[in-house]
User: Which sequence fits this backbone?
């Protein structure tokens, strides 16, 4: 019979696998991983109807979420509106407002 430490080493992968969470993509999740998964799914599917959700993600506290959102917006729309995901919140504010207006115009059939 294996010693206790050896048994723990043998069981560790099974225990870790059992603890792994499945991420469900959602723009409304409090978890950055779920929001990021939603952005990646939007990018992969080319879903332009998700532009308003992507614009919301530009205000995320998570820098990865902001980077994914702006790159996906630029890819889907072919538009760059001067948003820097690494800037301070007060510096991002004007660019977010431009994206909000863009999304509003797009949903009204404008752009």
Assistant:
């Amino acid at each position: 019979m294996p010693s206790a430490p050896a048994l723990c080493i043998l069981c560790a992968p099974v225990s870790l696998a059992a603890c792994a969470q499945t991420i469900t993509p959602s723009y409304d999740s409090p978890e950055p991983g779920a929001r990021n998964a939603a952005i990646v799914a939007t990018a992969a599917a080319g879903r332009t109807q998700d532009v308003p959700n992507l614009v919301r993600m530009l205000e995320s506290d998570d820098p990865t979420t902001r980077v994914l959102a702006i790159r996906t917006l630029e890819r889907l729309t072919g538009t760059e509106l001067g948003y820097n995901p690494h800037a301070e919140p007060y510096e991002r504010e004007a660019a977010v407002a431009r994206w909000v207006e863009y999304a509003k115009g797009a949903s009204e059939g404008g752009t």
About this structure: Residues 89-107 form the longest helix (19 residues). The chain has a mean pLDDT of 86.
